Amino acid sequence: MIEIEHLTKRYGKKTAVDDLTFAVKPGVVTGFLGPNGAGKSTTMRAVVGLDTPTSGLARVNGKHYSEFRSPLTEVGALLEAKSVHAGRSAYKHLLALARTHGIPKRRVTEVIDLVGLHEVAGKRVGGFSLGMGQRLGIAVALLGDPAVLILDEPVNGLDPDGVKWIRLLLKGLAAEGRTVFLSSHLMSELAQTAEHLVVIGQGRLLADTTVDAFVSGNGQARVRVVSPDAARLAEHLAGPGISVSSPERSVLEVTGTEAAVVGQTAAAHGLVLHELRTDRGSLEDAFMQLTADAVEYRQTTEGANR
Amino acid sequence: MTAAVMTDRPAAYTPPAQYKLSTAGLLRSEWTKLWSLRSTWIVLLCAVVFSAGLGAIIASSVPDDQAIGGAASAIDFSMAGIALASVFIAVLGILTVTGEYSTGSIRSTMSAAPKRLSVLWAKAAVYGAVVAVLFGAMVFLTFFLTQAIFSGTGLGGVSLSDDGVLRALLGYTAMIVYLALLALGIGAILRNSAGSIGFYIGVIMILPQLATLLPWNWVTDVTPYAPGNVPNTLLMVDPAGATLSVGESWLWMGIWLVVTYGLAGVLLKRRDV
């Protein structure tokens, strides 16, 4: 359980996180979504005590992170992929961290194998690709077999296999009753991994809900029609609140109505349909819609300050 | 959890209880970090080669006729390389801290030890101990090497049992450990490699030397108390003429370390990582 209570963090005049309150529960994967600079990383850094909040609290299982006697078994964090000395090998980096807590070498080898770095574990990290760096970061997070996992953009730089792997891994860890909190800018990725969503923009909470509720609440369903009589159908469909666009000559995309209505309209006028389908709004759409204001607001204020 | 009860919400996960953050663990961790970098081996090798090699070369090139003789100059010549090696030791001390900031590994370090201060103490303890052992050996090795060279010349060698010689040699060891710790503390305050090395060389090493050229008397009065100068008395075979007594020299080394580490500790606690 991660609890963020009225968390505010300012860097000089810039407010990165603004009175943010939410909780991340164990047992499910919770996604953390927001545009660049929304304050995701700052919030995560505050949880593991790297950033001191200007005001408010960030707690893990009721305690401030620094109060734990074994921080690495309480929280495993991947904050930035390259939180490693470039001149040190992956094995030695993990070993140095393991030794602070008396974690045996056996566990170090175990996490190296788990993330698939076995063959390069003795190589210096400076030569690692972004994906390998991510895998090492994930190994660090898993080192203490922690109750809470905080991962900032874990799929960044991973290949498709790696993305699939981490998706399964995180779901499995959550199913064991752990708290799993990950941020991502790949919204479709979160839709496949997370059950719960926390969305922020400009450091403020925009939504704290399930992925399903978020998509159906914010995304707009769209009806896709393929018809040789597309142009005539479009004329008959036109009405208040209904918008029709035609990306191709025989294809219509209709919003503001349902597939049933489109089908009935076509039948009533004797028009042939080759395809009739409802596209659920994607997480991307929902996200864009929700954060549009926040993003626009920021851009206009920046312009005004110049 | 033996019963295979399936519910919507999985049972709470309990992390392993046998692992604990400890002081011994932090010391071992810093030991691992120190020796797992190539730069440590290179810099220490340079320090060792310079202290013994330069001492030997200087010792063998002291001309017989200009040899002033006496234990003081015999020690000064033979320890010339040690003084230079202290620069390498200081730079490595700085890098043990600033290297973590420049590469970002400090985030991993401080996530594992969120109280932070214990990391600084562990770093200082491990590095101080390594330097003490290495240069405890190097100072004496260099001494015996150079005195063997001197014994064939008009300068003549001195022996450990001569007045003040042993104390002076231990003084060199103490100085190099002190400078190593001072540099590490400066690194913790400034967090930047170039800035810290520049500050160390400019302010700790060179400024006190230049300051004596300034036209104000008070500057000359305070320079013996500068952080880089306070160990000087310890290096003397006969400290009678020094501004600081041996006791005062130790005291001021302690004061400067307390000031440096006090500031480093406060900043480490207050600043974001």
Characterization of this structure:
The complex is a heterodimer of chains A (306) and B (273). Chain A is of the alpha/beta class. Chain A has helices at 40-47, 71-74, 90-100, 105-114, 130-142, 160-175, 187-193, 211-218, 230-237, 259-268, 283-305; strands at 2-11, 14-24, 29-33, 55-60, 75-78, 148-152, 179-183, 196-201, 204-210, 222-226, 243-248, 251-255, 275-279. Chain A has a six-stranded mixed β-sheet, sandwiched between helices. In chain A, strands 11-12-10-13 form a four-stranded antiparallel β-sheet, with helices on one face. Chain A has a three-stranded antiparallel β-sheet with strand order 2-1-4. The longest helix of chain A is centred in the last third of the chain and has 23 residues, at 283-305. The model of chain A is unreliable at 298-306 (pLDDT under 50). With 273 residues, chain B is mostly helical. Chain B has one domain (24-270). Chain B is globular. The relative contact order of chain B is 0.12. Classes of the chains: A alpha/beta (306), B mainly alpha (273). At the A-B interface, helix 2 and helix 3 of A face helix 1, helix 4 and helix 5 of B.
State the main characteristics.
heterodimer; A: 306 residues; alpha/beta; Rossmann fold; Alpha-Beta Plaits; 2 domains; six-stranded mixed beta sheet; four-stranded antiparallel beta sheet; 39% helix; elongated; B: 273 residues; mainly alpha; disordered N terminus; ABC_transporter-like_ATP-bd (chain A); P-loop_NTPase (chain A); nucleotide-binding (chain A); transport (chain A); ATP-binding (chain A)
Map the helices and strands.
The complex is a heterodimer of chains A (306) and B (273).
Chain A (H helix, E strand, L loop, with lengths): L1 E10 L2 E11 L4 E5 L6 H8 L7 E6 L10 H4 E4 L11 H11 L4 H10 L15 H13 L5 E5 L7 H16 L3 E5 L3 H7 L2 E6 L2 E7 H8 L3 E5 L3 H8 L5 E6 L2 E5 L3 H10 L6 E5 L3 H23 L1
Parallel strand pairs in A: 3-7, 3-8, 5-6, 6-7
Antiparallel strand pairs in A: 1-2, 1-4, 8-9, 10-12, 10-13, 11-12
Helix pairs in contact in A: 3-4, 4-5, 8-11
Chain B lengths: L22 H13 L2 H24 L9 H8 L1 H24 L1 H8 L4 H34 L14 H26 L2 H19 L5 H6 L23 H25 L3
Helix pairs in contact in B: 1-6, 2-4, 2-6, 3-6, 4-5, 4-6, 4-7, 4-8, 6-7, 7-8, 7-10
